[in-house]
Amino acid sequence: RRSGGGDGAGMMPAAILLAQAVPTISGFGMGGYSCAKAFAPENIRATQSWVLGFWSGVNNSLGLQVGIKTDAEGVLGEVQRVCAGKPATLLYVAVDQAYANLRKQGL
Does residue 25 surpass a pLDDT of 80? Predict the structure, then answer.
């Protein structure tokens, strides 16, 4: 039963509220693979599809058109550049970094 008075009974501590506001990010499908595994020859087609779909989803959710001044190969190339120096990086993290790179460049 919640108290109607001003004694604070029934209220959640601020730390709990803040903890609930922080989203948990999960890499689904190819996004949870390391760059090395994602860009292995046997996974390349699935990775390309996943990257472009994820990218399109981010653009849609943010109402942006990052990558509009390039093509699919340009987007994939930027992701591969991010992955090249960090093969253990999860693919979704590398795509996020590539997205930020192209966004910063106005592409």
Answer: no
Could you write out the three-class secondary structure of the chain?
Answer: CCCCCCCCCCCCCHHHHHHHHCCCCCCCHHHHCEHHHHCCHHHHHHHHHHHHHHHHHHHHHHCCCCCCCCCHHHHHHHHHHHHHCCCCCEHHHHHHHHHHHHHHCCC
- DSSP-assigned beta bridge partners for residue 34: 90
Structure tokens at 4: 């109607």
In this predicted structure, the answer to whether residue 28 has a pLDDT above a threshold of 80 is no
Residue among 99, 3, 90, 104 at smallest CA distance from 39: 90
Q: What is the pLDDT at residue 74?
A: 95
